[in-house]
Write a structure and sequence with these properties.
Layout: H1 2-15, E1 27-29, E2 32-39, H2 49-62, E3 67-72, H3 83-89, E4 94-97, H4 121-130, H5 133-142, E5 146-153, E6 160-162, E7 176-178, H6 181-189, E8 193-195, H7 199-208, E9 213-214, H8 219-225, E10 233-236, E11 245-251, H9 252-257, H10 260-294, E12 299-302, H11 305-322, H12 327-349, H13 351-358
Parallel strand pairs: 2-3, 2-4, 7-8, 7-9, 10-12
Antiparallel strand pairs: 1-2, 4-11, 5-11, 6-9, 6-10
Helix pairs in contact: 2-10, 4-5, 5-12, 6-11, 8-10, 12-13
Length: 366
Protein backbone atom coordinates (compact mmCIF):
# COMPACT_ATOMS: atom_id res chain seq x y z
CA UNK A 1 0.00 0.00 0.00
CA UNK A 2 2.81 2.46 0.87
CA UNK A 3 4.41 1.92 -2.53
CA UNK A 4 1.15 2.45 -4.44
CA UNK A 5 0.41 5.65 -2.52
CA UNK A 6 3.95 6.90 -3.10
CA UNK A 7 3.94 6.23 -6.85
CA UNK A 8 0.58 7.97 -7.19
CA UNK A 9 1.72 11.13 -5.45
CA UNK A 10 5.44 11.54 -6.16
CA UNK A 11 4.90 13.31 -9.48
CA UNK A 12 2.40 15.69 -7.95
CA UNK A 13 4.87 16.60 -5.21
CA UNK A 14 7.55 17.45 -7.76
CA UNK A 15 5.25 19.81 -9.65
CA UNK A 16 5.22 22.43 -6.90
CA UNK A 17 8.93 23.14 -6.94
CA UNK A 18 8.78 26.86 -6.30
CA UNK A 19 9.13 28.78 -3.05
CA UNK A 20 5.77 29.85 -1.72
CA UNK A 21 5.19 33.59 -1.75
CA UNK A 22 4.35 33.61 1.94
CA UNK A 23 3.76 31.32 4.88
CA UNK A 24 1.24 31.73 7.64
CA UNK A 25 2.76 32.34 11.05
CA UNK A 26 3.05 29.34 13.38
CA UNK A 27 -0.33 28.68 14.96
CA UNK A 28 -0.77 29.79 18.56
CA UNK A 29 -4.24 29.24 19.97
CA UNK A 30 -5.35 28.21 23.46
CA UNK A 31 -1.87 27.02 24.37
CA UNK A 32 -1.44 25.01 21.18
CA UNK A 33 1.47 25.27 18.75
CA UNK A 34 1.28 24.32 15.08
CA UNK A 35 4.62 23.81 13.33
CA UNK A 36 5.09 23.71 9.55
CA UNK A 37 7.55 21.02 8.48
CA UNK A 38 8.96 21.02 4.95
CA UNK A 39 10.75 17.93 3.72
CA UNK A 40 12.98 16.89 0.86
CA UNK A 41 11.10 13.66 0.19
CA UNK A 42 8.05 12.95 -1.97
CA UNK A 43 4.81 12.38 -0.11
CA UNK A 44 4.32 8.78 1.03
CA UNK A 45 7.84 7.72 0.00
CA UNK A 46 8.62 4.57 2.02
CA UNK A 47 10.61 5.09 5.22
CA UNK A 48 11.58 8.68 4.37
CA UNK A 49 8.23 10.36 3.79
CA UNK A 50 6.37 7.91 5.98
CA UNK A 51 9.03 8.34 8.67
CA UNK A 52 8.33 12.07 8.69
CA UNK A 53 4.63 11.28 9.02
CA UNK A 54 5.30 8.95 11.97
CA UNK A 55 7.33 11.69 13.63
CA UNK A 56 4.57 14.27 13.23
CA UNK A 57 1.98 11.83 14.60
CA UNK A 58 4.13 10.92 17.60
CA UNK A 59 4.78 14.57 18.49
CA UNK A 60 1.05 15.24 18.44
CA UNK A 61 0.21 12.18 20.51
CA UNK A 62 2.91 12.77 23.13
CA UNK A 63 1.78 16.39 23.53
CA UNK A 64 -1.90 15.35 23.66
CA UNK A 65 -2.61 17.59 20.70
CA UNK A 66 -0.95 20.72 22.09
CA UNK A 67 1.95 20.50 19.62
CA UNK A 68 1.11 19.60 16.04
CA UNK A 69 3.21 19.36 12.89
CA UNK A 70 1.84 20.04 9.41
CA UNK A 71 3.86 18.23 6.71
CA UNK A 72 4.68 19.60 3.28
CA UNK A 73 6.30 17.18 0.83
CA UNK A 74 9.24 18.23 -1.32
CA UNK A 75 7.99 20.76 -3.84
CA UNK A 76 4.72 21.62 -2.10
CA UNK A 77 5.90 24.80 -0.40
CA UNK A 78 9.59 24.93 -1.26
CA UNK A 79 11.80 22.97 -3.66
CA UNK A 80 13.15 19.76 -2.10
CA UNK A 81 16.71 21.03 -1.71
CA UNK A 82 15.72 24.46 -0.37
CA UNK A 83 14.24 23.32 2.94
CA UNK A 84 17.41 24.36 4.81
CA UNK A 85 17.08 27.98 3.70
CA UNK A 86 13.34 28.03 4.36
CA UNK A 87 13.75 26.97 7.99
CA UNK A 88 16.90 28.98 8.58
CA UNK A 89 15.11 32.15 7.48
CA UNK A 90 11.94 31.37 9.42
CA UNK A 91 9.78 30.87 6.31
CA UNK A 92 9.04 27.41 7.72
CA UNK A 93 9.44 26.06 11.25
CA UNK A 94 11.29 22.76 10.75
CA UNK A 95 12.52 20.39 8.07
CA UNK A 96 13.06 16.67 7.51
CA UNK A 97 16.04 16.03 5.22
CA UNK A 98 19.74 15.09 5.19
CA UNK A 99 22.49 17.56 6.04
CA UNK A 100 24.86 16.61 3.21
CA UNK A 101 22.45 18.09 0.67
CA UNK A 102 23.46 21.47 2.08
CA UNK A 103 27.25 21.13 2.08
CA UNK A 104 27.39 24.36 0.10
CA UNK A 105 26.69 26.08 3.43
CA UNK A 106 29.49 24.22 5.21
CA UNK A 107 31.48 21.13 4.27
CA UNK A 108 31.22 20.05 7.90
CA UNK A 109 27.52 19.26 7.37
CA UNK A 110 28.55 16.11 5.49
CA UNK A 111 29.71 14.48 8.71
CA UNK A 112 26.20 14.65 10.17
CA UNK A 113 24.78 12.55 7.35
CA UNK A 114 27.61 10.27 6.22
CA UNK A 115 31.02 10.23 4.57
CA UNK A 116 32.70 7.52 2.45
CA UNK A 117 34.16 4.70 4.59
CA UNK A 118 32.79 6.46 7.67
CA UNK A 119 30.55 5.39 10.56
CA UNK A 120 27.80 2.79 10.47
CA UNK A 121 24.30 3.61 11.75
CA UNK A 122 25.00 2.41 15.29
CA UNK A 123 28.41 4.10 15.34
CA UNK A 124 26.87 7.38 14.13
CA UNK A 125 24.34 7.26 16.96
CA UNK A 126 27.15 6.55 19.42
CA UNK A 127 29.16 9.54 18.16
CA UNK A 128 26.19 11.89 18.28
CA UNK A 129 24.85 10.83 21.67
CA UNK A 130 28.03 9.89 23.52
CA UNK A 131 31.02 11.09 21.49
CA UNK A 132 30.47 14.84 21.36
CA UNK A 133 28.95 14.86 17.87
CA UNK A 134 25.62 16.43 18.85
CA UNK A 135 27.31 19.33 20.62
CA UNK A 136 29.37 20.09 17.50
CA UNK A 137 26.28 19.75 15.31
CA UNK A 138 24.40 22.19 17.55
CA UNK A 139 27.24 24.68 17.27
CA UNK A 140 27.48 24.36 13.49
CA UNK A 141 23.73 24.45 12.84
CA UNK A 142 23.33 27.34 15.27
CA UNK A 143 25.35 29.48 12.85
CA UNK A 144 22.40 29.05 10.48
CA UNK A 145 19.71 29.61 13.11
CA UNK A 146 18.87 25.90 13.35
CA UNK A 147 18.56 23.29 16.11
CA UNK A 148 19.21 19.79 14.65
CA UNK A 149 18.25 16.27 15.73
CA UNK A 150 18.96 12.83 14.25
CA UNK A 151 15.65 11.44 13.00
CA UNK A 152 16.42 8.20 11.23
CA UNK A 153 19.12 6.24 9.49
CA UNK A 154 19.06 4.16 6.31
CA UNK A 155 21.85 1.84 7.42
CA UNK A 156 24.51 0.80 4.94
CA UNK A 157 23.38 1.56 1.41
CA UNK A 158 23.91 -0.09 -1.95
CA UNK A 159 26.60 1.10 -4.35
CA UNK A 160 24.11 2.23 -6.97
CA UNK A 161 22.40 1.57 -10.29
CA UNK A 162 24.19 1.47 -13.65
CA UNK A 163 22.97 0.92 -17.20
CA UNK A 164 26.11 -1.10 -17.96
CA UNK A 165 28.58 -3.21 -16.03
CA UNK A 166 31.39 -1.44 -14.19
CA UNK A 167 34.39 -3.76 -14.35
CA UNK A 168 37.29 -1.31 -14.34
CA UNK A 169 38.03 2.27 -13.38
CA UNK A 170 37.89 3.20 -17.07
CA UNK A 171 34.23 2.16 -17.09
CA UNK A 172 33.51 4.95 -14.62
CA UNK A 173 35.15 7.72 -16.60
CA UNK A 174 32.70 10.03 -18.33
CA UNK A 175 29.61 8.49 -16.75
CA UNK A 176 26.84 10.91 -15.82
CA UNK A 177 25.94 9.89 -12.30
CA UNK A 178 23.71 11.17 -9.53
CA UNK A 179 25.42 11.14 -6.11
CA UNK A 180 25.27 13.78 -3.31
CA UNK A 181 27.66 14.53 -0.46
CA UNK A 182 31.35 13.75 -0.29
CA UNK A 183 30.71 10.52 -2.17
CA UNK A 184 29.91 12.67 -5.17
CA UNK A 185 33.20 14.53 -4.83
CA UNK A 186 35.08 11.23 -4.60
CA UNK A 187 33.47 9.89 -7.78
CA UNK A 188 34.14 13.20 -9.52
CA UNK A 189 37.85 12.69 -8.93
CA UNK A 190 37.59 9.31 -10.63
CA UNK A 191 36.35 10.97 -13.81
CA UNK A 192 32.61 10.72 -13.21
CA UNK A 193 30.31 13.61 -14.18
CA UNK A 194 28.42 13.93 -10.90
CA UNK A 195 25.13 15.72 -10.26
CA UNK A 196 22.95 16.09 -7.18
CA UNK A 197 19.31 15.66 -8.14
CA UNK A 198 16.45 15.71 -5.63
CA UNK A 199 14.61 12.40 -5.23
CA UNK A 200 11.67 13.36 -7.43
CA UNK A 201 13.91 13.99 -10.44
CA UNK A 202 16.08 10.86 -10.41
CA UNK A 203 13.90 8.40 -12.36
CA UNK A 204 12.93 10.92 -15.08
CA UNK A 205 16.62 11.77 -15.52
CA UNK A 206 17.45 8.07 -15.92
CA UNK A 207 14.63 7.58 -18.40
CA UNK A 208 15.66 10.57 -20.51
CA UNK A 209 19.36 9.68 -20.51
CA UNK A 210 20.29 12.84 -18.65
CA UNK A 211 22.16 10.53 -16.25
CA UNK A 212 23.64 7.07 -16.83
CA UNK A 213 23.15 5.85 -13.30
CA UNK A 214 22.35 6.78 -9.74
CA UNK A 215 22.80 5.84 -6.15
CA UNK A 216 19.81 6.24 -3.89
CA UNK A 217 19.40 4.17 -0.75
CA UNK A 218 18.84 0.41 -0.75
CA UNK A 219 16.52 -2.30 -2.09
CA UNK A 220 13.42 -1.38 -0.06
CA UNK A 221 13.11 2.18 -1.22
CA UNK A 222 14.90 1.75 -4.57
CA UNK A 223 12.24 -0.78 -5.59
CA UNK A 224 9.51 1.76 -4.84
CA UNK A 225 11.26 4.42 -6.92
CA UNK A 226 11.41 2.06 -9.92
CA UNK A 227 15.06 2.43 -10.94
CA UNK A 228 15.12 -1.22 -12.04
CA UNK A 229 12.90 -0.27 -14.97
CA UNK A 230 15.79 1.61 -16.55
CA UNK A 231 19.08 0.37 -15.04
CA UNK A 232 19.59 -3.37 -14.51
CA UNK A 233 23.02 -3.49 -12.84
CA UNK A 234 22.86 -3.02 -9.08
CA UNK A 235 26.23 -2.68 -7.34
CA UNK A 236 27.42 -3.18 -3.79
CA UNK A 237 28.83 -2.35 -1.29
CA UNK A 238 27.66 1.19 -0.59
CA UNK A 239 31.05 2.37 0.62
CA UNK A 240 30.08 5.99 -0.03
CA UNK A 241 27.22 5.83 2.53
CA UNK A 242 27.81 3.30 5.31
CA UNK A 243 25.07 4.68 7.57
CA UNK A 244 23.21 7.77 6.40
CA UNK A 245 21.77 9.87 9.22
CA UNK A 246 18.69 11.99 8.52
CA UNK A 247 17.93 15.14 10.42
CA UNK A 248 14.98 17.05 11.78
CA UNK A 249 16.03 20.65 12.20
CA UNK A 250 13.98 23.37 13.89
CA UNK A 251 14.31 27.10 13.40
CA UNK A 252 16.33 28.16 16.44
CA UNK A 253 13.99 31.01 17.38
CA UNK A 254 11.04 28.64 17.18
CA UNK A 255 12.93 26.08 19.26
CA UNK A 256 13.66 28.61 22.00
CA UNK A 257 10.00 29.64 22.07
CA UNK A 258 8.84 26.10 22.88
CA UNK A 259 8.23 25.07 26.46
CA UNK A 260 10.69 22.67 28.13
CA UNK A 261 8.05 19.95 27.89
CA UNK A 262 7.54 20.55 24.17
CA UNK A 263 11.29 20.47 23.60
CA UNK A 264 11.57 17.16 25.46
CA UNK A 265 8.72 15.73 23.39
CA UNK A 266 10.67 16.53 20.22
CA UNK A 267 13.86 14.99 21.65
CA UNK A 268 11.97 11.83 22.56
CA UNK A 269 10.04 11.58 19.29
CA UNK A 270 13.11 12.03 17.09
CA UNK A 271 15.08 9.44 19.07
CA UNK A 272 12.24 6.96 18.71
CA UNK A 273 11.95 7.55 14.97
CA UNK A 274 15.67 7.01 14.52
CA UNK A 275 15.34 3.50 15.92
CA UNK A 276 12.16 2.74 13.97
CA UNK A 277 13.60 3.81 10.62
CA UNK A 278 16.75 1.69 10.79
CA UNK A 279 14.58 -1.24 11.90
CA UNK A 280 12.26 -0.67 8.94
CA UNK A 281 15.13 -0.73 6.44
CA UNK A 282 16.63 -3.84 8.05
CA UNK A 283 13.25 -5.59 7.97
CA UNK A 284 12.36 -4.72 4.36
CA UNK A 285 15.64 -4.71 2.41
CA UNK A 286 16.07 -8.48 2.10
CA UNK A 287 12.60 -9.15 0.65
CA UNK A 288 12.91 -6.16 -1.68
CA UNK A 289 16.27 -7.37 -2.96
CA UNK A 290 14.76 -10.79 -3.64
CA UNK A 291 11.97 -9.12 -5.63
CA UNK A 292 14.41 -7.02 -7.65
CA UNK A 293 16.57 -10.00 -8.57
CA UNK A 294 14.02 -12.79 -9.01
CA UNK A 295 11.01 -10.86 -10.33
CA UNK A 296 12.57 -7.97 -12.21
CA UNK A 297 15.81 -9.55 -13.42
CA UNK A 298 18.15 -7.10 -11.73
CA UNK A 299 21.80 -8.13 -11.96
CA UNK A 300 23.69 -7.92 -8.66
CA UNK A 301 27.33 -6.98 -9.04
CA UNK A 302 30.15 -6.25 -6.61
CA UNK A 303 32.69 -3.49 -7.13
CA UNK A 304 36.15 -4.96 -7.77
CA UNK A 305 38.91 -4.54 -5.21
CA UNK A 306 40.71 -2.22 -7.65
CA UNK A 307 37.68 0.07 -7.83
CA UNK A 308 37.15 -0.01 -4.06
CA UNK A 309 40.81 0.81 -3.43
CA UNK A 310 40.66 3.71 -5.88
CA UNK A 311 37.51 5.03 -4.22
CA UNK A 312 39.18 4.66 -0.82
CA UNK A 313 42.30 6.53 -1.95
CA UNK A 314 40.25 9.38 -3.40
CA UNK A 315 38.11 9.44 -0.27
CA UNK A 316 41.21 9.74 1.88
CA UNK A 317 42.36 12.74 -0.17
CA UNK A 318 38.96 14.41 0.10
CA UNK A 319 38.80 13.82 3.85
CA UNK A 320 42.33 15.15 4.38
CA UNK A 321 41.36 18.35 2.60
CA UNK A 322 38.50 18.75 5.08
CA UNK A 323 41.04 19.11 7.88
CA UNK A 324 42.36 22.26 6.21
CA UNK A 325 39.00 24.03 6.15
CA UNK A 326 37.58 26.53 8.67
CA UNK A 327 37.75 26.10 12.43
CA UNK A 328 34.40 24.39 12.96
CA UNK A 329 35.04 21.94 10.11
CA UNK A 330 38.48 21.14 11.54
CA UNK A 331 36.98 20.37 14.93
CA UNK A 332 34.12 18.28 13.53
CA UNK A 333 36.60 16.39 11.34
CA UNK A 334 38.94 15.72 14.27
CA UNK A 335 36.11 14.49 16.50
CA UNK A 336 34.67 12.25 13.78
CA UNK A 337 38.01 10.73 12.79
CA UNK A 338 38.96 10.06 16.41
CA UNK A 339 35.63 8.34 17.04
CA UNK A 340 35.95 6.34 13.81
CA UNK A 341 39.27 4.93 15.04
CA UNK A 342 37.67 3.85 18.31
CA UNK A 343 34.69 2.34 16.49
CA UNK A 344 36.92 0.36 14.13
CA UNK A 345 38.97 -0.96 17.04
CA UNK A 346 35.87 -2.27 18.81
CA UNK A 347 34.03 -3.55 15.71
CA UNK A 348 37.02 -5.72 14.82
CA UNK A 349 36.45 -7.77 17.98
CA UNK A 350 32.72 -7.11 18.30
CA UNK A 351 30.23 -6.97 15.45
CA UNK A 352 32.61 -7.79 12.58
CA UNK A 353 34.01 -10.80 14.40
CA UNK A 354 30.52 -12.09 15.07
CA UNK A 355 29.30 -11.52 11.48
CA UNK A 356 32.34 -13.37 10.13
CA UNK A 357 31.59 -16.25 12.51
CA UNK A 358 27.91 -16.35 11.53
CA UNK A 359 28.84 -16.81 7.87
CA UNK A 360 30.69 -20.07 8.56
CA UNK A 361 28.98 -23.11 6.94
CA UNK A 362 27.71 -24.89 10.05
CA UNK A 363 24.15 -26.28 10.17
CA UNK A 364 21.73 -23.94 11.93
CA UNK A 365 17.96 -24.30 11.81
CA UNK A 366 16.28 -25.97 8.83
Amino acid sequence: MERRKFLATAAAGAAGAAMAASFPAPGLAQGKRNLRMVMTWPKNSPALGTGAERLAKRIQELSEGKLTVKLYAGGELVPPLEVFDAVSSGAADCYHSASYYFQGKSKALNFFTTVPFGLTASEMAAWLYYGGGQELWDELAGQFNLKPFPVGNTGVQMGGWFAKEINTLDDLKGLKYRMPGLGGEVFRRLGVAVSNLPPQEILPALQSGAIDGTEWVGPYIDLAFGFHKVAKYYYHPGIHEPGSNLDFSVNLDVWKSLTPTQQEIIRTATAAETQLMIAEFDARNSDALDTLVNKHGVQLRQFSDDIVNAIGTAAGQVMAEMAAADDITKRVYASYIDFRKKAMRWSRYGEKAFLDARMLPFKYGD
